[in-house]
Amino acid sequence: MKTPFTLENETALITGGGTGIGLGIARCMVQSGARVVLVGRREEPLAKACADLGERASFVAADITRLDAAAELVAAATKVAQSPVSILVNNAGTHLKKFAEDTTPEDFQNVLTTHVLAAHALTRAAIPGMLANGHGSILFTSSMAAFMGVPQVMAYAAAKSAYFGMVSTLSAELSAKGLRVNAIAPGWIFSDMTQQALDRDPARKARVLSRIQMGRMGNPEDIGWAAVYLSSPAAAYVTGVTLPVDGGASVGF
Question: What are the catalytic residues?
Answer without folding.
Answer: 156
